């Protein structure tokens, strides 16, 4: 019997197709990409999904302004997201668009099932309606804003409409039970506490259909003039994409990566809908915080978005992998926002990449080129002193550490655990001074052992870096004369000490990360 590999299904939010991609979208998607790549490297059976959320009312307006149909406009913009992610090296397994038939058919079936079970029912909704935004404003928010639109300041109107509702209130106890019995269901902890607090206040049923969308959206079964509310339609994407015979094994998802803005939908409404459908809930919902830009919230009015042009300029100047490293190590994974500041970027680049990783790689490969004609020497058996042992242990201990950290989605921590191995190589070089030993022919054996230890530790570190910096690591592998297929990895085995064969041709190659002023 072939052994079944663990599955790993990771998702990003599906992004509003009306928007242009910016650093926020790129961040969530890059994080998911790093996790997906890590799990492929580990040998898991991975499915990584991203996509676009297309049925918002705004799409109809934007399309009309351009003399296009909503579908044409959505096609144009979805292509921008796909192209952007391709350019940024995102290796998603599928790209779901909610206007695709494969999605719409599934959503209709889910809603039908929920109608049968009574979890979706017809009722009347009355509330404060913001005509300028085409949305209802919750009672308390309406009050706080003096019954004016929180966005445009225009008066809110009392409006009643026939709607279909989802019986969210039925699931309050089960949701509380879920969050209490699985403390890592919603992460980080601060977000979990937020959700628990609101859950304890009680749940109301939620309207899940809308009128007046001009037919753009998925027609609500049992109605001629209503479409399924765009959020409900969108949440189903996570399930609809894998709800096929060949992909069923991926459900439940391991983790939905999202940000704090959409926590309630993912931590409460979505699991309740899944419970109503009799499906498993995802294993984790991870809600990160926001990037701000040079100390300020990114906003249209300030025009300070880290947009595609800006992202491209960082990639051009520092490389794509440097951007990925910055996002991975400095990003807002916890409960506070992170600042995308230029000076910070340059500093992180120079400290971590140019001076640490890049410098170490060129030192090691240069010394082997110089002292051993670019042929990796064999370590002399039985010559492992304390310093060498410390380095070997740092390298061989990395794999478990990184596995634990990635397993807990501590992406920055995992990056630093790998960088620690690189730093251990530097320390070892300082301690053993191979450049001095090289002057004494009698020390050739010791020099050989030292350089083998350096190169072998660097090889192991490079494996840990591969999910974050796939291109630079491929360059490093070429220099070290090794090759791996990280999409079908055997990380544990590859991390065993001794993988690098003496006699291998080592080349010095170009600097991985040239220093920047
Ligand atoms: N379409 C909905 C999501 C539906 S999921 C079933 C939506 N789309 S969105 O285009 O507005 O994307 C929101 C997501 O983009 C956030 O949850 C986050 O993942 C990412 N980000 C948007 N701005 C961000 C920052 N400033 N910083 C970090 N990530 C942010 O909501």
Molecules bound to protein? 5'-O-[(L-methionyl)-sulphamoyl]adenosine
> What number is the mean pLDDT?
96
Q: Give Rg in angstroms.
A: 27 Å
Q: How large is the share of residues in beta strands?
A: 5-15%
The backbone outline, from C-alpha atoms, is: elongated
- Distance from N terminus to C terminus (CA atoms, Å) equals 57 Å
Residue share in helix: 40-55%
The strands making up the biggest β-sheet line up spatially as: 3-2-1-11-12-7
Which structural class do you get from the secondary structure elements?
alpha/beta
Catalogue the unreliable spans.
none
**Total helical segments:** 19
Major β-sheet annotation: 6 strands, parallel
What is the β-strand count? Answer: 14
SSE topology:
Elements: E1 7-16, H1 23-42, E2 45-53, H2 57-65, H3 70-87, E3 94-97, H4 101-116, E4 120-130, E5 135-137, H5 139-144, E6 157-166, H6 172-181, E7 186-187, H7 189-200, E8 206-207, E9 209-211, E10 226-228, H8 230-235, H9 237-240, E11 255-259, H10 263-277, E12 284-288, E13 291-293, H11 308-318, H12 320-330, E14 338-340, H13 342-372, H14 386-407, H15 411-432, H16 434-437, H17 444-465, H18 470-480, H19 491-494
Parallel strand pairs: 1-2, 1-11, 2-3, 7-12, 11-12, 13-14
Antiparallel strand pairs: 4-5, 4-6, 6-8, 9-10
